[in-house]
């Protein structure tokens, strides 16, 4: 097929642009999908639609102080593009620069269409194509596109609104309240008392970043989170680059870190009690003598039941040791004019309150989809190979790992997607639809993860089965066999 988009006409005779693949989202997943398509299937036409005015997704949206990756960039980066910075744990500007380079190096600039927000998508079996309605956010104009394949690369959370629980008495508070997802550029926290509500990756990033100039920073958590210090720079990875050059050194460092991540996760799964003891020992060494480690850093759940938070060079612990940051484990009874009153009766006064309370999960950007006029109910679908949905033809999505670097899975499924399209072209197939052969197959939540933001939305997400290919793997090794080296055909994947 030609790389140029074709023009077809709709039923009214108006011209409609047709593409082989329409990618939704120009973040790390969408850019990766675009690169794999252009490299592996250079004859295919495709475009990347981005609702916002710039690329980068998460790394352009979030602007709070200290924002950084919580995975090393040798695995969070793409397999095809070496990470050349000295820092293995990178901040948002470094990651954005890496993504912009990827776009330039692979000629994707003209493929990305900014301010294009997808309104809905409908599949027609008779025409064997998707019809996608799009709104131009910059002009308000609505346009219609058609495509053979729809590829969703929007992650799993809402970009327009973060999650903030209902806090009693919030209207009485006279200070400033801000959610990290909507950080104001003009917010001045210097010399002020800052209260960060939350204990996840965002909170542990914010606290040391704010502590540099704030009068005092307090992290208020209902329950502790597992937190481990990691080096911001990976000396072994940097040595490998010096010895073997960028390409080979990066590949070796990536392989090392994949094995390291898997070893840590496997150990925590197999020996949770031992893992808890080790994490506690590391935390105690990082904290002041006599610090109540069990109260503030020993969660009631096992390691990796929720994501383990990494703090580069132990910056959170340094802020606590230096007296610039504190941790309080308690529950909020109500907001007061000056801060929050806790269940224990203690009042925490604050000039600025940061609600680092999580995300609003939203699968596939909340785009309404239908198949032959019937709305797709995500909770009625089952994930196929962690990249397609039962009963939904010619639709693929990119959702990475929750227990490892996101991009590891994205790379595997993008490669598999390209091989699937090549197989269909060789055999003259136009339609591909996964169907569960056994209606009685037991299912469970698609994102089998204990984090609160997942539990709040689980009923509106797809399901996964109890066996391959309906089991959504969280193992890079297993996915390497199924997606990387495995066949694209399957008895439960139907072509026509």
From TrEMBL:
UniProt GO molecular function: flavin adenine dinucleotide binding; N,N-dimethylaniline monooxygenase activity; NADP binding
Keywords: FAD, Flavoprotein, Monooxygenase, NADP, Oxidoreductase
SUPFAM superfamilies: FAD/NAD(P)-binding domain
Pfam family, one: FMO-like
Cofactor(s) the protein needs: FAD
InterPro entries referenced in this protein's UniProt entry, alphabetically: FAD-binding_MO, FAD/NAD-bd_sf, Flavin_mOase-like
Similarity comment text for this entry: Belongs to the FAD-binding monooxygenase family.
Protein's name in the database: FAD-containing monooxygenase EthA
Native species: Kitasatospora cheerisanensis KCTC 2395
């Amino acid at each position: 097929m030609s790389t140029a988009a074709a023009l077809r006409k709709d039923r009214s005779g108006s011209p409609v642009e047709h593409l082989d693949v329409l990618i939704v989202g120009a973040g790390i997943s969408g850019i990766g999908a675009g690169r794999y398509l252009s490299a592996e299937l250079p004859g295919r036409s495709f475009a990347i639609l981005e609702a916002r005015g710039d690329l980068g997704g998460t790394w352009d949206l979030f602007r709070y102080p200290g924002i950084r990756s919580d995975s090393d960039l040798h695995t969070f980066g793409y397999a095809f593009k070496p990470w050349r910075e000295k820092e293995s744990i990178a901040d948002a500007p470094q990651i954005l620069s890496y993504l912009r380079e990827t776009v330039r190096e692979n000629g994707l600039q003209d493929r990305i269409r900014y301010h294009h927000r997808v309104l809905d998508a409908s599949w027609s079996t008779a025409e064997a194509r998707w019809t996608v309605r799009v709104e131009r956010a910059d002009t308000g104009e609505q346009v219609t596109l058609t495509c053979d394949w729809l590829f969703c690369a929007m992650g799993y959370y809402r970009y327009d609104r973060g999650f903030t629980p209902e806090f009693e008495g919030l209207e009485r508070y006279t200070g400033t309240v801000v959610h990290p997802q909507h950080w104001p550029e003009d917010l001045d926290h210097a010399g002020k008392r800052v209260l960060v509500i939350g204990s996840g990756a965002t909170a542990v990033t914010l606290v040391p970043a704010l502590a540099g100039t704030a009068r005092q920073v307090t992290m208020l958590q209902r329950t502790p989170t597992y937190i481990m210090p990691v080096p911001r720079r990976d000396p072994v990875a940097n040595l490998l680059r010096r010895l073997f050059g960028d390409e080979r050194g990066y590949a070796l460092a990536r392989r090392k870190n994949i094995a390291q991540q898997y070893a840590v996760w496997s150990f925590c799964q197999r020996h949770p009690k031992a893992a808890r003891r080790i994490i506690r020992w590391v935390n105690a060494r990082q904290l002041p003598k006599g610090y109540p480690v069990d109260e503030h850093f020993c969660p009631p759940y096992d390691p990796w039941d929720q994501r383990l938070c990494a703090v580069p060079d132990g910056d959170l612990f340094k802020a606590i040791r230096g007296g610039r940051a504190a941790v309080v484990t308690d529950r909020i009874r109500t907001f007061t004019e000056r801060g929050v009153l806790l269940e224990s009766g203690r009042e925490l006064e604050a000039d600025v309150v940061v609600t680092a309370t999580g995300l609003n999960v939203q699968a596939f950007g909340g785009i309404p989809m239908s198949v032959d006029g019937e709305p797709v109910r995500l909770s009625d679908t089952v994930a196929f190979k962690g990249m397609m949905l039962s009963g939904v033809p010619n639709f693929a999505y990119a959702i990475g790992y929750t227990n490892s670097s996101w991009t590891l899975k994205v790379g595997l499924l993008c490669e598999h997607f390209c091989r699937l399209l090549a197989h269909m072209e060789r055999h003259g197939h136009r339609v591909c639809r996964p169907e569960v052969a056994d209606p009685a197959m037991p299912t469970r939540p698609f994102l089998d993860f204990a984090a609160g933001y997942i539990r709040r939305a689980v009923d509106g997400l797809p399901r996964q089965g109890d066996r391959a290919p309906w089991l959504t793997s969280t193992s890079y090794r297993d996915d390497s066999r199924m997606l990387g080296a495995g066949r694209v055909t399957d008895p439960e994947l139907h072509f026509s």
